[in-house]
Design a protein that fits this description.
alpha+beta; Ribosomal_bL12_C/ClpS-like; 128 residues; Ribosomal_bL12; Ribosomal Protein L30, Chain: A; Ribosomal_bL12_C; rod-shaped; three-stranded antiparallel β-sheet; 6 helices; mRNA binding; 2 domains
């Protein structure tokens, strides 16, 4: 910093809040600028932040949305039991009450593996 800017900075530090507000107003009028933060920039940054949050998702839900064919119900039921460790009645209730979460909060690799197994057995599956 130059000596002139150091001097101005030291003088600014001694201003009261009211004096600082008056100084801002005078600078805005003298130079035709605004000290307010641009709203458009903050609004434009929000969708970008939301997109980044979606990309960083690490936990997934495996959702059984239905059966590709009703004749595949037993095969899907067996896979649900193997993946979840549920008993026969609980697995049957899950398969019959689609759409239903089969697994929740699992890593991407485990979710994709479960999806693959369920689809091969005849289920319609989505990762959320």
């Amino acid at each position: 910093m130059s000596a002139a800017t150091d001097t101005i900075l030291e003088q600014l530090k001694t201003l009261s809040l009211l004096e600082a507000a008056e100084l801002v107003k005078q600078i805005e009028e003298a130079f035709g600028v605004s000290a307010a933060a641009p709203v458009g920039v903050a609004a434009a940054a929000a969708p970008a932040a939301a997109a980044e949050a979606v990309e960083e998702k690490t936990d997934f839900n495996v959702v059984l949305e239905g059966l590709a064919d009703e004749s595949k119900k037993i095969a899907v039921l067996k896979v649900v039991r193997a993946i979840t460790g549920l008993g026969l009645k609980e697995a049957k209730d899950l398969v019959e009450s689609t759409p239903k979460d089969v697994l929740t909060g699992v890593p991407k690799a485990a979710a994709e593996d479960a999806k693959k197994q369920l689809e091969e057995a005849g289920g319609k599956v989505a990762l959320k």
